[in-house]
Structures are given as structure tokens and as C-alpha cells.
Amino acid sequence: METKNLVSEIRKLLPGGDCTGRGGCGYATCDLCAKAIAEGAATNRCPACDQTALDAIAALLGRDPVEAKPLTAFVRCSGSAAGKARLKVYSSCDEAVKSGFTADECKFGCVGAGSCVEACTFQALTIVDGSVQVCKDSCNGCGACAEACPQKLIAMVPEDASNFVPCNNQDEEERSYKLCGYSCVGCGDCAEACPEEAITIIDNRAVIDYEKCVGCAACTVACRKKIIVDTYHDLTKLKPTVAFVQCRGGWHNHEVYVKAGITSCHQAAQHDLPDHCSYGCAGFGDCAQACRFDAISIVDGTAKVDPDKCVGCQACVFTCPQHLPVIVPYKGAKMVPCASKDDPETRKKLCWVGCIGCGDCVDNCPDGLIHLEDGKAVIAPENCEDCNICTYVCPKNVIVTREMPEYTYVQVRAMAAMKGGAAK
Description:
The protein is α+β, with helices and mostly antiparallel strands.
């Protein structure tokens, strides 16, 4: 067959839309790509070709079949910390990035101007509520969107991949926590947990090697911020820990603050008002606003955690100015919901449900897991056997019995898969 006819036949087998030279083939048009293949370039030069098309091209040219490796686009940003609302007035992402970022914005994130959407000739990308969404059914992996993004946020990943790190942030951990609830903080917990050594920390963020990744849930379970996207497993069940609020008497505090005209927890922490516990929950819900999983609610002026929704990401821990939320085992344990450092007598006057530091629970714990700290009981939940003796002897019924949920099958497997870890 003449070269001209070959080019025409190969062109018919290519995906059809033209990525205008921004795809992964290296040519300005599909016609030029087809011509290159006819003249000796690899049959899989176009990354958007599926296996059927590649087999047909190989047969047409009399070459050996080449295995297709279908790719799809994934946007490595889930937050709005890069100033999307402020930068949306720009006509392109390149212009928005060049305009610069403010001190409280992530300079590595998505600016939301939509250059990637414009570059996609297959209508696979859209912007929903300021975030770029990829339709896997429409995406053919050409890579035009990745080329168009000035922030280099879009990665071309295997079509069958199931775990993704939606973050391109390269700031240090402390700044990452402050900027975005979705940011990777580069802690390395996922890398340590991965049994296949498929994750490395590069520029303070986790990067997955899909040649090694087998799609287990170990990284998802280990991620302390629970930002790793797992398309196979229910994230709310893949967790070794959840949050617990060390206060259940915040209603009185909340009333005092409201009467004083205070409207936020951080504002409350800056005021020392009379006749209230200065260590308790202010009840304005700063922690609830920070929670991405709707796991915290304010009930009678006090923050409450729903352990079924909580994934232990620690967003509430870093948000609460009183440091009331703590991370405890998901398996359930006895906890003392009191963080007061007042003397026991003052505590009795200010709160009806606070620990009075009598020490009865300390004296009766058979495993010695309870001690007094700042005049209140503190329990080591990791080793608690849930024997209930402490709850029986507590004269004020302060100690809370947390529900002990059953681990799911995938949770047990994921925990066992962690390097050096074991299912419990």
C-alpha cells in the first residue's frame, strides 16, 4: 500500500478528535502523527489509541502488536487555597499564575481559570464549583490538558489506577496544614505503610509509582490527613484512629461567650471571662467548619464527633484553639471528656460534668492505664481493655464509653499489609 494511502488508513484509526499538538505524540496534528507512524514511528505513538486501534494499525503495517497502556488525566489539587475565587477573572491560568499569589495562598495549586478545559477537544474536563473534574469515560489520555496547565497539576495515570494523591503542594508541613485541608504534608506515613514501596516523598509531597502500586488500601489507611483518593474503598471505614473532644459541658461556656458578643472559637480563646471554664469548648464550630467529612457537629454548645464519619485526619486538632480534639483508636476505648487545668474545687463550681480528680478510677484500673494530670484523669486508650471498672467507680459518671465498631474486612487486610504492621 502506498504511503499516502497508509497515512489515510492510519488516520482513520486514530481517536478522531485533534488535540492540536498538545497531546503526547509530539506532532501538531493527527495527520502528521499518522504520517510519522506510516514512516516508521511506533504504532502506539498516539497515547489516546486503545488496544483495538493499535492492533489494527499493527496489522495494517505488518508489525508486531504493541500492548496499549490506557491513561487518564488526574488533577493533583482538591482545594481552593490557590486563590481560585480571586483569580477567576483572568482569561487563562497562565495569566492568573503570572499575576502572583498572596501570602496566605498556595502557589502550587489550581487557579481555576480553565485553560485545561479549553485545551481538551474531547470535552472530558469541566469546572464544577471552581474545581476541575475529569470524566474518565470521555478522557482518552491524550495529555493536552497536562500540557496546558502552567502549574503542572495534571498527571496522566493508568486508566485502571485506584489510588491518587490530589496535591502538588511543596510547602513545609506546618504551612501546608494552615493553607489547605486537602494538602499533602509530606509526613511519609503512606510511604512507610506501602508494602510495595510504591510511594516516595518528593518536594514534601507523596508521589505514587503506578508501576509498583497494586491498589491496596494501606496508604489510604495510613494517611494522617486522609486526602489520598481511593476509588475502591470507603474512606470513612479505612481508619485506625478518630477524633475525640475532651469536653462535654460546653453549653454553659457557649452561653457566656454569646452574651459577650463573641462569634468564633478563636475569638473566645482570647477572652478570659468570669464564671466559665476557660479550658472548655466554646461551641462556635470552628472545628466543624474545618472538617471535610461532616463528622463534627455542635450539640448544646459542645462539639461532638461522629466516629462513623470521622477519618482521623486531624483537621479539627489543628483548628481548635483550645486543643480539645485528640486522636484516639478507632477500635473504641474509655475516654475522659475534660481538659480543665483548674483546681478540682473550681472545676466543681464551673462544670457539672467535669472530672473532679478524685482518683477512684486510677486506684481501680487493673491495667494501670489511668493517671491524674492537672488534677484530672487521663486514660491511655491504646491499651484499654474496655473492662468498664473505671466507669463503675467514677462518682460523677464522667468517663465516656465510646462505641467499639467492627473493623471491616478490607480494614483488617489493609492494616496487615502495612510494612511492620499487623491486623489487630
